[in-house]
Amino acid sequence: MATLQFTLPSITGGRHRRESPTILRPVRCTADRQALFNRIAPVYDNLNDLLSLGRHRVWKRMSVSWSGAKEGDTVLDVCCGSGDLAFLLSEKVGISGKVIALDFSKEQLQIAASRQRKRSRACYKNIEWIEGDAVDLPFSDSSFDAATIGYGLRNVVDRKKALEEMCRVLKPGTKVSVLDFNKSTNPLTSSIQDWMIDNVVVPVASGYGLASEYQYLKNSIKEYLTGCELEKLALQAGFSEAKHYEISTGFMGNLVATR
Ligand SMILES: C/C(=C\Cc1cc(O)c2ccccc2c1O)CCC[C@H](C)CCC[C@H](C)CCCC(C)C
Ligand SMILES: C[S@@+](CC[C@H](N)C(=O)[O-])C[C@H]1O[C@@H](n2cnc3c(N)ncnc32)[C@H](O)[C@@H]1O
Predict the structure, then answer these.
(1) Bigger pLDDT: 170 or 6?
(2) What start-end ranges are recorded for coiled-coil regions in this protein (predicted)?
(3) 92 CA to middle of ligand 2, Å?
(4) What does the pLDDT read at residue 14?
(5) Rounded distance between C-alpha atoms, residue 160 and residue 233, angstroms
(6) Residue 38 CA: which ligand 2 atom is closest?
(7) What is d(CA 226, CA 8) in angstroms, rounded to the nearest whole number?
(8) 220: nearest Cα among 204, 248, 201, 243
């Protein structure tokens, strides 16, 4: 199968271009994943925009809407990364609300705080960035009116524990919205997703010396759970209801679980 060659637009002034050979790094444990997201932090947002043609912003907006977050709420964004969902939650809850955004990557949180400083809308002052682990949330039971976790659950080693923690900190009757890649049961969708990652995503990332990081992305999708499996896991974690929706022709999926 021919691999498309790309002339990459410099989105970081070429600072991240490294010569081959590609170093395939293990990404099995929490520390490996933390290091991975620290490494990709400087180019993460730009590569997401480039590789999804900006569509990831639509998917994130849908996910935040599904969380049920509303004006004046206190809400949680787990695995917040550079803050995309936290900023959307901030707009939803407004200046009378509060957004707590948690991640275990210092580099990602620094990018998020830098983006916050550059933004003038009053509501963004309602965001607080916290360094922490999704499997051990530093919050009391029933603290939040809504929660989101965007492209995070797939990356957490103990996914059930992360869901149990989000269930614990949500108020009864409130929701978590879990956005991620969809591990499709449709062979055609799965093949096209694989092709896109093999022939577009990884080659483009290779140009920034990040081939192994984006190869991890492909492997993590393979090792992820299907929509049905996510629904079952959410119920096992203590949620009373769980429903998974496929979006973007099945490339992406969003689980909505009610405490
Ligand atoms: C925002 C997106 C992915 C975030 C993301 C999640 C991870 O777990 C990673 C792990 C390792 C490295 C990077 C990431 C990471 O960036 C989704 C959009 C960005 C994707 C990289 C692009 C995916 C393209 C789709 C397969 C096809 C899109 C088709 C069309 C443009 C709608
Ligand atoms: C692909 S990024 C998603 C960032 C953001 N939610 C978005 O949608 O763009 C995954 C994030 O999850 C974080 N992460 C992975 N495992 C974690 C854990 N156990 N605890 C906290 N953060 C974690 C990583 O540091 C990274 O910032």
Answers:
(1) 170
(2) none
(3) 21
(4) 46
(5) 7
(6) 25
(7) 33
(8) 201
Q: Which ligand is nearest to the CA of 195?
A: 1
Which of 43, 75, 79, 99 best tests ligand 2's pocket when mutated (most atoms within 8 Å of CB)? 79
Q: How confident is the model at residue 200 (pLDDT cuts 50, 70, 90)?
A: very high
Alpha carbon of 138 to ligand 1 centroid (Å): 28
Please tell me the pTM assigned to this model.
0.92
For the chain, domains (ranges, CATH) are 30-258 (3.40.50.150)
Segment 32-39 long-range contacts (CB within 8 Å, at least 24 positions apart):
33/155, 33/157, 34/104, 34/105, 36/213, 36/216, 37/81, 37/103, 37/105, 37/107, 37/108, 37/155, 38/105, 38/106, 38/107, 38/108, 39/107, 39/210, 39/213
User: Edge-to-edge strand order for the sheet containing 74-78?
Assistant: 127-131, 98-103, 74-78, 144-150, 170-181, 252-258, 241-247
CA distances from 3 to 10, 11, 90, 197, 259 (A): 21, 22, 41, 11, 45
For residue range 148-181, what is the model confidence (pLDDT) as tens digits? 999 999 999 999 999 999 999 999 999 999 999 9
Which residue, among 61, 110, 50, has the nearest Cα to 82 in the 3D structure?
110
Closest ligand by atom to 252 CA: 1
Nearest CA to ligand 2 atom 27: 81
Whether pLDDT at 21 is above 70: no
Query: Mind listing the pLDDT tens digit for each residue in 45-60?
Result: 999 999 999 999 999 9
DSSP 55: T
Cβ of 37 less than 6 Å from ligand 2: yes
Q: Is 180 in the pocket of ligand 2 (CB under 6 A)?
A: no
